[in-house]
Amino acid sequence: MKIAFAAAVVFACLALAPGARADEPIVIKFSHVVAPDTPKGKAAEKFKELAEERTHGRVKVEVYPNSQLYKDKEELEALQLGAVQMLAPSVSKFGPLGIKEFEVFDLPYIFPSVAALRRVSDGPIGKELFKKLEPKGIIGLGYWDNGFSVITSNKPLRTLADFKGMKMRIQSSKVLEATYKHLGALPQVMAFSEVYQALQTGVVDGGENTPSNVYTQKFYEVQKYLTVSDHTYIGYALIVNKKFWEGLPPDIRTILDGAAKDATTYCNSIAEQENAEAMAKIKAAGTVEFITLTPEQKAEWRKGLLPVHEEMASRIGKDLIQAIYKETGASTTQ
Ligand code: LMR
What we know:
The protein is of the alpha/beta class.
């Protein structure tokens, strides 16, 4: 009797383990909130292509773009519950999970270039940050680029004083909140899928995002101005449910790890071009007036926003900020 029950339990566990039934593919639901023709949208499809090809169909990846399955906050909960297996959320959105350190990526002007960012994300700092995901049942597989932000608005934003009283949409990051409060603006956290309508109806006056998102979500259709400020960066963490990942057959996990690495390289190789093309298309549409900050104006913005670094040091961690300064060459003194 005991032997029969033990056999039944083992069988049940085997039946539940991913890929236990050889005739059925292991299914990966990959949910995200942006459009398919974006760096993240294309990289998710690239991961699907590589994972299915290299496992000869033992893995099936279902990509759900445009918040089809879940909005920002819900998708992280769904990942932790195992309702979906993979995501690539903006690193600005881990605060609500209790992981504040990722908000260091939102500090204004902390990254002077993509190369500087890469030294952080692909170096020891990036790895250390990924370790903070594991207690939440999440494993980080790679850092995916989008790009530096522009600001769209319904009134011209040339100086920091122009932000006073502006209702600005932000991602769920306390650093972004502090940045806009520092400017006397009224920051409003909002799910990405709700932004277009909020801009159209005037619930908010503006928001920051990459040209790729501004173009593919048509924000430029419902805004009058676009300020090229490069003051923050939007990037993603490719993440997987820990239990799912560790439950995979080892050979499959190795292949998927390789596919994730190659999709990461692919994403980071197309991101800048995707944003340059989006910027050109927004310009060609002629619906927004472009305000490109001069180097002097950018220096003014940088000087005016750097106090946010000090202000958020206790939340993010002074040592982490200092470590990033060391890697990027940025600092609050210059
Ligand atoms: C946003 O919420 O504005 C972005 O994080 C969306 C995205 O994933 O690029």
